[in-house]
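A common beginner's mistake is to predict each chain separately and then try to dock the pieces by hand. The better habit, illustrated here, is to supply every component at once so that their relative placement is modeled jointly.
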Amino acid sequence: MAANDIYFSENDSTVTPKISGVSDYVWQKGWNYASLDRMSMLTNSGDYGFYGPQAMFLLDGIPFDPSFFGVAYSQHFPLPYFLTSQIELKNGHGVLHGINYHAGLMNIQSESVKDGLSVFGSGQYGHNSGEPGPWVFDPDRVSPNVERFGPWINGGVSFKLGNWYAKGFLKFQEYKHVDEFVQLRMINSRRSPTDPSDWLGVDTRSLLRLAETGFTASWISVKVQAYQSESEDFLFFQPFAREIPAEFEVNQYSALSTIHFTPNVGIRGLFQYREQGLNYRLNRFDYNFDWKKEMNSIRGSLFYLGDRFQADIGTEYELTDITAPGLSEYERIITTIFVNQELQIVPQFLISATAQVQVSGDNTAHMAGGSFSIDPSSFWNMNLAGSYSELLPEVAHPLEHQVNSGYYIFDHLDIPFELPGQIKNTRKVSFSNHHQFTMGDMFSLGLSAEWMHHISMNIPFQAALYDLEFSTMPGNFSLLPEISGQRLIAGADVQFIPLRNMVHRAAITLQRTLGGDQEYETYWKMIPDFMVQYSIDYTPYSDVNLVLNLQYRSETTWNEFSNLDGELNRTFHVQYPFRFFEFSDTTPKHFNIDLKMGKWFWGQRLRGELVLKNLLNTNYQTHPLGIRERFGYMARVEMRF
Amino acid sequence: MIRTAIVSLIVLIAANQNLYSQEAFSEVRLTLTANKLMSGNTLLRSWEPTEGLGFELSTPYHFGNLEAGYRYLRFNEIDFENSGFHSHYIFFGWNFSYAASDEVALVSGVRFGKQFMLHDEDIFYGGDYRFSREESEFSYELQMRLQYEISRNIELYIGTAYNRTVFSIPFAAFYGTAGLTFKFPSSRWFRTVME
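With all components supplied together, the output reads:
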């Protein structure tokens, strides 16, 4: 739940996921996501909203960054969806296995490597309803809106011998997204200069390659990982109020090691080099991000893991170097010192505390929190927590910080903007309470509530303008400084296992703005007040699995698109004939049903899966400029040897 | 009322697993089918379907039967020149047989698949807007049939199916089908692959 304990993992929701898209990463965890295309996502962990500081991503203990200017791209997640073993979401700040995080954490575990040689391959294909059918021969009814997802092809090999393993895989994804509502993509289409029959800019492709090797013994573990990812894609650039075509590139090299001096005492170390690039892709606008970020980081920590006392104390040194037009010698060094500890005073009573101090130049940010956990009875656990957090401007608002330092992308894109000369730290205080009731293996109930006070937030706001030809034009972009207010997040989650092969899970999340500046109240209207997610996971036989997901989501209002509300949205020249739709700054409330069916063949070597999405075939929208998702399907075949 | 419905559903599902268990993948059934589109909506205003052919493969599962199959029909144009197309429906599904007597069974089931439509030609609008001759979309089908066992290895059936292809403007149709089924004991490798 969103309001779950902030600092440590006991109360966090950790369930075996069945991932077939980005929405599954936050399913029943209390987080919200908004996506224009179902591939990229803005996430809200509850802490800072869609345009605030975003959560950190961790895969098998190694951080990765699939995000560009606040939008995470699932294409750049360094694992195929179906190899996801577990997902754990954490809010706020804290330390997990020597890794410190500031604004939430998505901790992903991949399937473990099996002994001997293993090979896998998978193919996936699907699309959404809306394909015209044979009406292509009827000029009055034609519309070439065909959303194709695929082919998505994954292939990999792994080898494990004793304590040593190695693995590698390729992940290729292609999709063509021409939903009638996302005209921002179509406007980027242009005939190829070399081949007039070729339209550019609508297809997106991504390719990711990963290689990893590791060694684990009783006193030492070492892991070395490298991955490269590149894609021709679309970047939702909030200051520009639209998506624009771009080329992404991520290269990351990591070395992670843990050494035990005794069974209880040891050190951890992580070195990372990450390179992210955002480049030009042929389009109708004359611009080039030409943005490249290089990051070197070293983390080291000393830990003690006792039966009743656990502690982790360490430091991180991060050097970030960015080259972009107008930005020369942008080099930032952020040094962090962190400490995390848990003490079990008696079996029924545990206290924990965590703290971080970040230093960048003359600026400092402090984070501290504590909690205690009590078991009033054998079936009841209660947790109380409090936290204060502070984020540096280069951490909370890196783009605005870079623009203030000289990056002239706003001028280049003709975006009127207004930024404070000095961006202040983001500050927040919160208190949470969680109760967990467990009755055997059959039933569990979690109840949680979190109150938070944003003492000072900087809210990015783009007053998008309406333009018939281009749909949207950038209005004035501003970083609204030092906004404050209070929020309440409450939730309940239930798990009921009536049969050994049937699991029911439900999660309810209620979020309210209690008070604050007008800009604050407006900002949080982008987050649904109420959400219910319910699933039945049924395995009638060992080779067949059925999952039914139901979701209700209340409406949201995105004030930055209020100038577009009620205006017409027109299809563009590659669609025939022109059609008109109506913009709205409100995404409607929605009830959605998805069905997933899977069957194993050949002794669990071959698997077929069919996902039927949005069975009620109603418009589902998470972003005012995003797709209106209707009925769709996805078919997948997976082989493992 | 709701509580009764939920409890009944749970009991029904639990009971089904035991009461209706059978030996999964114990035989293979190959069926050759003849199909006729009996009635439908949108598509039939501009295209006239011919009779079609198909085949189905099915095998018993723990509960009901699993199946996969293919159906072909040709649609000749009425309104738009050179717009005729070949329809290929590839599907898989699940069905349940209710034995009315030793020889007669009533079978009902659901199928999921993809409808491929290969038109005779691409078409251009305004000289610039080209639409591919290849169309495809998700399609589901509800079927019901009456099955008669002629001998231990041969069956006949007649049935009907309601098919819906979820185009932007959906196409719905009722098909009439006659099938001749040949039954074989499954081989060991078949059971290995299916399990």
